[in-house]
Amino acid sequence: MKFLISTLLLVLIESANAQNFHTIVDSLGLTILERSNTIGSYVSIVKGDSLIYSSSFGYNNPDTKTPLTDSTIFPISSNTKAFNSILLTQLLETNQIDFETPIKQYLPDLQFKDNYTTNHINTMDILTHRWGFPRYDFTYYMLSSDEMLNANQAVVNKFKYMEPTVEFRTKFQYGNNQYILAACLLEKITGIKWEKRLRDEILEPLKMYDTHCDYEQFINSTNRSLGYQNNKEVDIKLVKPFYHVSGMGNMFSSVRDLQAWSNFLINGNDSILSEALIDYNLSSHFNVGYEEPYEGFSSMTYGLGWFIFDYFGHKVVLHHGDNIGHQSLILLMPDDDISIVIIANEGMKSYGFPFCMAYSLLDLMTDRNINDWCSILPGDVNIVSDSTLKEPEPPTVDIKDYQGEFLHEGFGKIRISLLEEKLMIDAGAYKGELIHWSANTFKVYSEEFQTESRFEFILNSKKGIVSVKTDLIEPSVEMIQFKKEVITKPKRH
Question: CA torsion sign, 51 to 53 to 55 to 57?
Fold first, then answer.
Protein backbone atom coordinates (compact mmCIF):
# COMPACT_ATOMS: atom_id res chain seq x y z
CA MET A 1 0.00 0.00 0.00
CA LYS A 2 2.87 2.36 0.84
CA PHE A 3 4.38 1.65 -2.58
CA LEU A 4 1.09 2.51 -4.34
CA ILE A 5 0.71 5.77 -2.38
CA SER A 6 4.34 6.74 -3.12
CA THR A 7 3.89 5.98 -6.84
CA LEU A 8 0.67 7.97 -7.00
CA LEU A 9 2.30 10.88 -5.17
CA LEU A 10 5.24 10.84 -7.60
CA VAL A 11 2.84 10.90 -10.57
CA LEU A 12 0.94 13.83 -9.05
CA ILE A 13 4.17 15.75 -8.39
CA GLU A 14 5.40 15.14 -11.95
CA SER A 15 2.02 16.20 -13.31
CA ALA A 16 2.07 19.39 -11.23
CA ASN A 17 5.62 20.12 -12.38
CA ALA A 18 4.59 19.57 -16.00
CA GLN A 19 1.62 21.91 -15.60
CA ASN A 20 3.84 24.52 -13.97
CA PHE A 21 6.42 24.12 -16.76
CA HIS A 22 3.74 24.62 -19.42
CA THR A 23 2.39 27.67 -17.65
CA ILE A 24 5.84 29.25 -17.44
CA VAL A 25 6.67 28.59 -21.11
CA ASP A 26 3.23 29.84 -22.21
CA SER A 27 3.79 33.06 -20.27
CA LEU A 28 7.32 33.47 -21.64
CA GLY A 29 6.15 32.96 -25.22
CA LEU A 30 3.34 35.49 -25.04
CA THR A 31 5.52 38.09 -23.31
CA ILE A 32 8.47 37.69 -25.68
CA LEU A 33 6.18 37.69 -28.73
CA GLU A 34 4.88 41.11 -27.74
CA ARG A 35 8.24 42.48 -26.61
CA SER A 36 9.98 41.39 -29.84
CA ASN A 37 7.18 42.75 -32.04
CA THR A 38 6.69 39.37 -33.73
CA ILE A 39 3.55 38.28 -35.60
CA GLY A 40 3.79 34.55 -34.91
CA SER A 41 6.03 31.79 -33.61
CA TYR A 42 6.12 28.13 -32.65
CA VAL A 43 8.09 26.42 -29.88
CA SER A 44 8.74 22.69 -29.52
CA ILE A 45 10.76 21.04 -26.72
CA VAL A 46 11.75 17.38 -26.40
CA LYS A 47 13.31 15.82 -23.30
CA GLY A 48 14.60 12.29 -23.79
CA ASP A 49 11.98 10.54 -25.91
CA SER A 50 9.11 12.75 -24.78
CA LEU A 51 7.66 15.87 -26.36
CA ILE A 52 7.28 18.02 -23.26
CA TYR A 53 6.11 21.23 -24.93
CA SER A 54 4.62 22.17 -28.30
CA SER A 55 2.68 25.36 -28.89
CA SER A 56 2.18 28.33 -31.20
CA PHE A 57 2.06 32.00 -30.27
CA GLY A 58 0.42 34.75 -32.29
CA TYR A 59 -0.54 34.05 -35.87
CA ASN A 60 0.68 32.96 -39.24
CA ASN A 61 -1.96 35.22 -40.79
CA PRO A 62 -3.24 37.91 -38.40
CA ASP A 63 -6.09 38.84 -40.76
CA THR A 64 -7.63 35.38 -40.66
CA LYS A 65 -6.29 34.59 -37.16
CA THR A 66 -4.64 31.46 -38.59
CA PRO A 67 -1.94 30.11 -36.26
CA LEU A 68 1.35 28.47 -37.10
CA THR A 69 1.35 24.71 -36.50
CA ASP A 70 4.04 22.08 -36.13
CA SER A 71 3.39 21.11 -39.77
CA THR A 72 3.56 24.63 -41.25
CA ILE A 73 6.31 24.76 -43.89
CA PHE A 74 8.87 27.55 -43.58
CA PRO A 75 12.39 28.38 -44.83
CA ILE A 76 15.05 27.14 -42.41
CA SER A 77 17.83 29.20 -44.06
CA SER A 78 21.23 28.60 -42.43
CA ASN A 79 20.02 25.59 -40.47
CA THR A 80 20.57 23.89 -43.84
CA LYS A 81 24.33 23.96 -43.15
CA ALA A 82 24.21 21.20 -40.52
CA PHE A 83 22.53 18.86 -43.01
CA ASN A 84 25.33 19.59 -45.48
CA SER A 85 27.96 18.73 -42.87
CA ILE A 86 26.28 15.43 -42.02
CA LEU A 87 26.10 14.49 -45.72
CA LEU A 88 29.84 15.10 -46.09
CA THR A 89 30.56 13.23 -42.86
CA GLN A 90 28.77 10.22 -44.34
CA LEU A 91 31.43 10.28 -47.07
CA LEU A 92 34.09 10.49 -44.36
CA GLU A 93 32.66 7.37 -42.72
CA THR A 94 32.86 5.44 -46.01
CA ASN A 95 36.39 6.74 -46.77
CA GLN A 96 35.24 8.62 -49.88
CA ILE A 97 36.69 11.84 -48.51
CA ASP A 98 39.28 12.98 -46.01
CA PHE A 99 38.51 16.32 -44.34
CA GLU A 100 42.22 17.23 -44.14
CA THR A 101 42.99 16.47 -47.78
CA PRO A 102 43.11 19.55 -50.05
CA ILE A 103 39.84 20.00 -51.93
CA LYS A 104 41.90 20.56 -55.07
CA GLN A 105 42.39 16.79 -55.21
CA TYR A 106 38.63 16.34 -55.58
CA LEU A 107 37.93 19.52 -57.58
CA PRO A 108 40.96 20.03 -59.86
CA ASP A 109 39.55 23.24 -61.36
CA LEU A 110 39.18 24.96 -57.96
CA GLN A 111 41.04 28.29 -58.04
CA PHE A 112 41.49 31.16 -55.59
CA LYS A 113 43.49 34.35 -56.11
CA ASP A 114 46.48 32.99 -54.24
CA ASN A 115 48.03 29.62 -54.92
CA TYR A 116 48.55 28.72 -51.26
CA THR A 117 44.81 28.80 -50.52
CA THR A 118 44.08 27.03 -53.79
CA ASN A 119 46.45 24.17 -53.00
CA HIS A 120 45.83 23.80 -49.27
CA ILE A 121 42.17 24.57 -48.49
CA ASN A 122 40.42 21.46 -47.19
CA THR A 123 36.94 20.39 -46.17
CA MET A 124 37.48 21.27 -42.52
CA ASP A 125 38.48 24.81 -43.53
CA ILE A 126 35.19 25.44 -45.30
CA LEU A 127 32.90 23.72 -42.80
CA THR A 128 34.38 25.78 -39.93
CA HIS A 129 34.42 29.17 -41.75
CA ARG A 130 38.19 29.62 -41.41
CA TRP A 131 39.03 30.07 -45.11
CA GLY A 132 39.86 33.79 -44.91
CA PHE A 133 36.97 35.34 -46.86
CA PRO A 134 33.99 37.47 -45.85
CA ARG A 135 30.45 36.71 -47.02
CA TYR A 136 30.45 37.80 -50.70
CA ASP A 137 26.75 36.94 -50.88
CA PHE A 138 26.37 38.59 -54.27
CA THR A 139 28.24 35.70 -55.87
CA TYR A 140 24.89 33.91 -56.02
CA TYR A 141 22.66 36.98 -56.29
CA MET A 142 24.16 37.96 -59.65
CA LEU A 143 24.06 34.66 -61.48
CA SER A 144 23.05 34.86 -65.13
CA SER A 145 20.34 32.59 -66.52
CA ASP A 146 23.04 30.41 -68.08
CA GLU A 147 24.96 30.18 -64.79
CA MET A 148 21.80 29.07 -62.97
CA LEU A 149 21.83 25.84 -64.97
CA ASN A 150 24.78 24.76 -62.78
CA ALA A 151 24.58 27.33 -60.02
CA ASN A 152 26.83 25.62 -57.47
CA GLN A 153 29.71 25.39 -59.93
CA ALA A 154 29.06 28.93 -61.21
CA VAL A 155 29.51 30.31 -57.69
CA VAL A 156 32.70 28.29 -57.14
CA ASN A 157 34.05 29.68 -60.42
CA LYS A 158 33.82 33.20 -58.94
CA PHE A 159 36.14 32.40 -56.02
CA LYS A 160 39.25 33.35 -58.02
CA TYR A 161 37.99 36.96 -58.07
CA MET A 162 37.39 37.22 -54.30
CA GLU A 163 39.76 39.18 -52.10
CA PRO A 164 40.47 37.68 -48.66
CA THR A 165 40.21 39.93 -45.61
CA VAL A 166 42.31 37.85 -43.20
CA GLU A 167 45.02 35.24 -43.54
CA PHE A 168 43.95 31.71 -44.30
CA ARG A 169 43.02 29.69 -41.16
CA THR A 170 43.55 32.60 -38.77
CA LYS A 171 40.02 33.86 -38.09
CA PHE A 172 36.40 32.73 -38.05
CA GLN A 173 34.38 34.50 -40.75
CA TYR A 174 30.85 33.20 -41.11
CA GLY A 175 29.46 32.93 -44.62
CA ASN A 176 27.49 30.97 -47.19
CA ASN A 177 29.83 30.45 -50.13
CA GLN A 178 31.97 27.90 -48.32
CA TYR A 179 28.91 25.68 -47.84
CA ILE A 180 28.04 26.04 -51.53
CA LEU A 181 31.57 24.76 -52.19
CA ALA A 182 30.86 21.89 -49.79
CA ALA A 183 27.73 21.00 -51.79
CA CYS A 184 29.72 21.18 -55.03
CA LEU A 185 32.31 18.87 -53.47
CA LEU A 186 29.63 16.37 -52.43
CA GLU A 187 28.16 16.35 -55.94
CA LYS A 188 31.57 15.83 -57.54
CA ILE A 189 32.48 12.87 -55.31
CA THR A 190 29.10 11.12 -55.43
CA GLY A 191 27.90 12.11 -58.90
CA ILE A 192 24.51 12.84 -57.31
CA LYS A 193 22.74 16.20 -56.94
CA TRP A 194 22.97 17.57 -53.40
CA GLU A 195 19.18 17.73 -53.02
CA LYS A 196 18.70 14.08 -54.05
CA ARG A 197 21.47 12.93 -51.74
CA LEU A 198 19.80 14.88 -48.90
CA ARG A 199 16.45 13.21 -49.57
CA ASP A 200 17.84 9.69 -49.93
CA GLU A 201 20.33 9.72 -47.06
CA ILE A 202 18.61 11.87 -44.40
CA LEU A 203 15.03 12.97 -45.12
CA GLU A 204 13.60 9.58 -46.13
CA PRO A 205 15.29 7.57 -43.34
CA LEU A 206 14.10 10.10 -40.74
CA LYS A 207 10.61 10.30 -42.31
CA MET A 208 10.99 14.06 -42.74
CA TYR A 209 8.23 14.18 -45.33
CA ASP A 210 7.51 17.90 -44.91
CA THR A 211 11.08 18.85 -45.81
CA HIS A 212 12.29 19.72 -49.30
CA CYS A 213 14.37 22.19 -51.34
CA ASP A 214 11.73 23.21 -53.92
CA TYR A 215 11.11 26.97 -53.98
CA GLU A 216 8.12 26.69 -56.33
CA GLN A 217 6.57 23.98 -54.15
CA PHE A 218 6.92 26.25 -51.14
CA ILE A 219 5.39 29.40 -52.62
CA ASN A 220 2.46 27.37 -54.01
CA SER A 221 1.82 25.55 -50.73
CA THR A 222 -1.40 26.24 -48.86
CA ASN A 223 0.37 25.34 -45.62
CA ARG A 224 3.33 27.69 -45.77
CA SER A 225 4.48 30.28 -43.30
CA LEU A 226 3.91 33.87 -44.33
CA GLY A 227 6.84 36.21 -43.68
CA TYR A 228 6.91 39.62 -42.02
CA GLN A 229 9.32 42.41 -41.23
CA ASN A 230 8.25 45.14 -38.84
CA ASN A 231 4.78 43.59 -38.98
CA LYS A 232 4.52 44.06 -42.75
CA GLU A 233 4.22 41.03 -45.00
CA VAL A 234 7.26 40.60 -47.26
CA ASP A 235 7.75 38.67 -50.48
CA ILE A 236 10.14 35.70 -50.34
CA LYS A 237 10.86 36.30 -54.04
CA LEU A 238 13.41 38.85 -52.80
CA VAL A 239 15.60 35.96 -51.68
CA LYS A 240 14.90 33.55 -54.52
CA PRO A 241 18.68 33.34 -55.24
CA PHE A 242 19.02 31.35 -51.98
CA TYR A 243 17.24 28.53 -53.77
CA HIS A 244 19.40 28.49 -56.91
CA VAL A 245 22.31 27.10 -54.92
CA SER A 246 22.67 24.20 -52.50
CA GLY A 247 23.80 23.42 -49.01
CA MET A 248 23.84 26.79 -47.27
CA GLY A 249 20.21 27.88 -46.94
CA ASN A 250 17.95 26.26 -49.53
CA MET A 251 15.79 24.00 -47.34
CA PHE A 252 12.15 24.25 -46.26
CA SER A 253 10.84 22.26 -43.32
CA SER A 254 8.36 22.06 -40.44
CA VAL A 255 8.77 22.07 -36.68
CA ARG A 256 7.84 18.39 -36.41
CA ASP A 257 10.43 17.45 -39.04
CA LEU A 258 13.13 19.54 -37.38
CA GLN A 259 12.31 17.83 -34.10
CA ALA A 260 12.89 14.47 -35.82
CA TRP A 261 16.23 15.85 -37.07
CA SER A 262 17.12 17.06 -33.56
CA ASN A 263 16.20 13.69 -32.05
CA PHE A 264 18.54 11.99 -34.52
CA LEU A 265 21.41 14.30 -33.55
CA ILE A 266 20.94 13.61 -29.85
CA ASN A 267 19.85 9.95 -29.85
CA GLY A 268 21.65 8.75 -32.97
CA ASN A 269 20.77 6.37 -35.80
CA ASP A 270 23.61 4.12 -36.97
CA SER A 271 21.89 3.47 -40.30
CA ILE A 272 22.50 7.13 -41.17
CA LEU A 273 25.74 7.92 -39.32
CA SER A 274 27.66 6.48 -36.40
CA GLU A 275 27.20 8.05 -32.98
CA ALA A 276 30.91 8.93 -32.89
CA LEU A 277 30.67 10.93 -36.12
CA ILE A 278 27.47 12.68 -35.02
CA ASP A 279 29.40 13.75 -31.92
CA TYR A 280 32.22 14.85 -34.24
CA ASN A 281 29.78 17.27 -35.91
CA LEU A 282 28.58 18.56 -32.53
CA SER A 283 32.13 19.06 -31.17
CA SER A 284 34.26 22.20 -31.19
CA HIS A 285 36.65 22.51 -34.14
CA PHE A 286 37.49 26.22 -34.38
CA ASN A 287 37.33 29.22 -32.09
CA VAL A 288 34.74 31.80 -33.10
CA GLY A 289 36.91 34.44 -31.49
CA TYR A 290 34.81 36.15 -28.86
CA GLU A 291 32.98 35.48 -25.64
CA GLU A 292 29.31 36.13 -25.09
CA PRO A 293 29.20 39.19 -22.82
CA TYR A 294 26.70 37.56 -20.46
CA GLU A 295 27.08 35.70 -17.21
CA GLY A 296 27.37 31.94 -17.56
CA PHE A 297 28.41 31.78 -21.23
CA SER A 298 31.70 30.20 -22.14
CA SER A 299 33.69 31.35 -25.16
CA MET A 300 32.00 30.31 -28.39
CA THR A 301 33.38 27.76 -30.83
CA TYR A 302 32.15 26.27 -34.10
CA GLY A 303 31.53 22.62 -34.86
CA LEU A 304 30.41 21.45 -38.29
CA GLY A 305 27.40 23.63 -39.00
CA TRP A 306 26.88 24.50 -35.30
CA PHE A 307 27.85 27.16 -32.76
CA ILE A 308 28.91 25.54 -29.50
CA PHE A 309 29.27 26.95 -25.98
CA ASP A 310 28.59 26.10 -22.34
CA TYR A 311 25.92 27.82 -20.30
CA PHE A 312 26.71 27.47 -16.59
CA GLY A 313 28.40 24.15 -17.37
CA HIS A 314 25.72 22.77 -19.70
CA LYS A 315 26.84 22.10 -23.27
CA VAL A 316 24.77 24.00 -25.83
CA VAL A 317 24.80 23.35 -29.60
CA LEU A 318 22.90 26.00 -31.54
CA HIS A 319 22.28 27.39 -35.00
CA HIS A 320 20.06 30.17 -36.24
CA GLY A 321 18.56 30.71 -39.68
CA ASP A 322 17.52 34.20 -40.75
CA ASN A 323 15.89 35.26 -43.98
CA ILE A 324 13.40 37.72 -45.40
CA GLY A 325 10.37 37.28 -43.15
CA HIS A 326 11.46 34.15 -41.30
CA GLN A 327 13.74 32.89 -38.55
CA SER A 328 14.47 29.42 -37.25
CA LEU A 329 16.55 28.30 -34.30
CA ILE A 330 17.59 24.82 -33.22
CA LEU A 331 19.12 24.41 -29.77
CA LEU A 332 20.50 21.11 -28.54
CA MET A 333 21.65 20.22 -25.03
CA PRO A 334 23.17 16.80 -25.82
CA ASP A 335 24.28 15.98 -22.27
CA ASP A 336 20.82 16.82 -20.92
CA ASP A 337 18.88 15.01 -23.69
CA ILE A 338 17.04 18.21 -24.58
CA SER A 339 16.26 19.66 -28.00
CA ILE A 340 14.42 22.89 -28.75
CA VAL A 341 13.04 24.05 -32.10
CA ILE A 342 11.80 27.63 -32.47
CA ILE A 343 10.46 29.40 -35.54
CA ALA A 344 9.17 32.93 -36.04
CA ASN A 345 7.62 34.61 -39.07
CA GLU A 346 9.55 37.83 -38.47
CA GLY A 347 12.90 38.01 -40.27
CA MET A 348 16.17 39.93 -40.53
CA LYS A 349 16.54 40.54 -36.81
CA SER A 350 19.79 40.05 -34.93
CA TYR A 351 18.08 39.05 -31.71
CA GLY A 352 14.33 38.61 -32.14
CA PHE A 353 11.89 36.10 -30.70
CA PRO A 354 13.97 32.92 -31.29
CA PHE A 355 17.05 34.07 -29.35
CA CYS A 356 15.12 35.73 -26.52
CA MET A 357 12.98 32.61 -26.14
CA ALA A 358 15.88 30.17 -26.47
CA TYR A 359 17.98 31.91 -23.84
CA SER A 360 14.98 32.13 -21.51
CA LEU A 361 14.44 28.39 -21.93
CA LEU A 362 18.13 27.83 -21.21
CA ASP A 363 17.59 29.54 -17.86
CA LEU A 364 14.50 27.42 -17.21
CA MET A 365 16.18 24.15 -18.21
CA THR A 366 19.18 24.82 -16.00
CA ASP A 367 17.03 25.74 -12.97
CA ARG A 368 18.09 29.37 -12.95
CA ASN A 369 16.16 32.58 -12.53
CA ILE A 370 14.90 33.62 -15.96
CA ASN A 371 16.65 36.70 -17.28
CA ASP A 372 14.88 39.46 -19.20
CA TRP A 373 16.62 38.62 -22.46
CA CYS A 374 14.52 41.08 -24.45
CA SER A 375 16.29 43.84 -22.51
CA ILE A 376 19.70 42.19 -22.32
CA LEU A 377 20.23 41.24 -25.98
CA PRO A 378 21.21 44.08 -28.31
CA GLY A 379 18.59 45.50 -30.65
CA ASP A 380 19.00 46.02 -34.38
CA VAL A 381 21.04 49.02 -35.49
CA ASN A 382 19.23 51.52 -37.66
CA ILE A 383 21.36 52.67 -40.58
CA VAL A 384 21.57 56.45 -40.88
CA SER A 385 22.80 57.70 -44.22
CA ASP A 386 25.72 60.07 -43.86
CA SER A 387 24.13 62.13 -46.64
CA THR A 388 22.48 63.91 -43.73
CA LEU A 389 25.86 64.72 -42.19
CA LYS A 390 27.47 66.86 -44.92
CA GLU A 391 26.59 69.32 -47.64
CA PRO A 392 26.32 67.29 -50.87
CA GLU A 393 27.96 68.42 -54.09
CA PRO A 394 25.75 68.36 -57.21
CA PRO A 395 26.26 65.70 -59.94
CA THR A 396 28.85 66.63 -62.54
CA VAL A 397 26.89 65.12 -65.47
CA ASP A 398 23.26 64.90 -66.49
CA ILE A 399 21.31 62.17 -64.68
CA LYS A 400 20.69 60.27 -67.94
CA ASP A 401 24.45 59.85 -68.42
CA TYR A 402 24.70 57.53 -65.43
CA GLN A 403 22.73 54.89 -67.32
CA GLY A 404 24.43 51.85 -68.80
CA GLU A 405 25.54 48.28 -68.29
CA PHE A 406 28.59 47.74 -66.11
CA LEU A 407 30.45 44.44 -66.17
CA HIS A 408 32.86 42.59 -63.88
CA GLU A 409 34.20 39.39 -65.40
CA GLY A 410 33.80 37.49 -62.15
CA PHE A 411 30.73 38.89 -60.43
CA GLY A 412 28.56 39.70 -63.44
CA LYS A 413 26.58 42.64 -64.74
CA ILE A 414 24.95 45.69 -63.13
CA ARG A 415 22.36 47.59 -65.16
CA ILE A 416 21.50 51.19 -64.34
CA SER A 417 18.52 52.80 -66.04
CA LEU A 418 16.37 55.90 -65.78
CA LEU A 419 12.75 55.32 -64.89
CA GLU A 420 10.48 58.34 -64.34
CA GLU A 421 13.48 60.54 -63.48
CA LYS A 422 14.78 57.97 -61.01
CA LEU A 423 17.99 56.00 -61.41
CA MET A 424 17.26 52.32 -60.86
CA ILE A 425 19.77 49.54 -60.30
CA ASP A 426 19.32 45.97 -61.48
CA ALA A 427 22.05 43.66 -60.16
CA GLY A 428 20.77 40.18 -60.82
CA ALA A 429 18.12 39.51 -58.21
CA TYR A 430 18.84 42.79 -56.41
CA LYS A 431 16.93 45.89 -57.46
CA GLY A 432 16.66 49.37 -55.97
CA GLU A 433 16.74 53.11 -56.47
CA LEU A 434 20.02 55.03 -56.58
CA ILE A 435 19.74 58.14 -54.42
CA HIS A 436 22.21 60.95 -55.05
CA TRP A 437 24.65 61.51 -52.21
CA SER A 438 27.38 63.82 -53.42
CA ALA A 439 29.04 64.62 -56.77
CA ASN A 440 29.13 61.32 -58.71
CA THR A 441 28.39 59.09 -55.74
CA PHE A 442 24.98 57.54 -55.13
CA LYS A 443 23.59 55.25 -52.47
CA VAL A 444 20.95 52.56 -52.48
CA TYR A 445 19.13 51.50 -49.33
CA SER A 446 17.33 48.17 -49.02
CA GLU A 447 14.65 48.26 -46.37
CA GLU A 448 14.14 44.49 -46.68
CA PHE A 449 17.82 43.67 -46.15
CA GLN A 450 18.46 46.71 -43.91
CA THR A 451 21.63 47.53 -45.80
CA GLU A 452 23.01 50.62 -47.52
CA SER A 453 25.46 50.43 -50.43
CA ARG A 454 27.53 53.02 -52.28
CA PHE A 455 28.00 53.50 -56.02
CA GLU A 456 30.82 55.79 -57.15
CA PHE A 457 30.88 56.59 -60.87
CA ILE A 458 34.30 57.11 -62.48
CA LEU A 459 34.55 59.70 -65.27
CA ASN A 460 37.00 60.21 -68.09
CA SER A 461 37.26 63.75 -69.51
CA LYS A 462 36.83 62.45 -73.07
CA LYS A 463 34.73 59.31 -72.69
CA GLY A 464 32.43 60.35 -69.86
CA ILE A 465 31.48 57.64 -67.34
CA VAL A 466 33.75 54.63 -67.81
CA SER A 467 33.05 52.54 -64.69
CA VAL A 468 31.31 52.35 -61.34
CA LYS A 469 32.82 51.20 -58.04
CA THR A 470 30.55 49.72 -55.40
CA ASP A 471 30.60 48.04 -52.01
CA LEU A 472 27.35 46.24 -52.82
CA ILE A 473 29.20 43.00 -53.55
CA GLU A 474 31.04 42.95 -50.22
CA PRO A 475 31.23 45.94 -47.86
CA SER A 476 34.28 44.66 -45.95
CA VAL A 477 36.69 44.83 -48.91
CA GLU A 478 37.83 47.64 -51.19
CA MET A 479 35.06 48.74 -53.53
CA ILE A 480 34.81 46.50 -56.59
CA GLN A 481 34.94 48.15 -60.01
CA PHE A 482 32.54 47.33 -62.84
CA LYS A 483 33.52 48.65 -66.27
CA LYS A 484 30.94 50.26 -68.50
CA GLU A 485 30.22 48.26 -71.60
CA VAL A 486 30.72 50.26 -74.79
CA ILE A 487 28.12 49.73 -77.44
CA THR A 488 29.73 49.95 -80.84
CA LYS A 489 27.57 50.99 -83.74
CA PRO A 490 27.93 48.95 -86.95
CA LYS A 491 29.85 50.69 -89.69
CA ARG A 492 27.99 51.96 -92.72
CA HIS A 493 29.13 50.72 -96.08
Answer: negative
Question: By three-state DSSP, how is residue 400 classified?
Answer: helix
Would the pLDDT of 261 be above 50?
A: yes
Average pLDDT over residues 444-450: 83
Q: Is residue 387 scored above 50 in pLDDT? A: no
pLDDT in tens, 325-346: 999 999 999 999 999 999 999 9
DSSP class of residue 390 equals S
- Closest of 408, 435, 431 to residue 241, by C-alpha: 431
Mean pLDDT (the chain) is 91
Question: What is the phi-psi region of residue 106: left when phi exceeds 0, alpha when psi lies from -120 to 50, beta otherwise?
Answer: alpha
Following CA atoms 92, 307, 354, 233 in sequence, which dihedral angle do they give, to the nearest 10 degrees?
Answer: -70
Please, which residues bridge with residue 314 across strands?
311
Q: Which domains does the chain have, with CATH numbers?
A: 26-376 (3.40.710.10), 386-484 (2.40.128.600)
Distance CA 202, CA 232 (A): 35
| CA–CA gap between residue 9 and residue 179 (Å, rounded) | 52
| 303 CB-contact burial (10 Å; exposed 0-12 / middle 13-18 / buried 19+) | buried
pTM listed for this prediction = 0.93
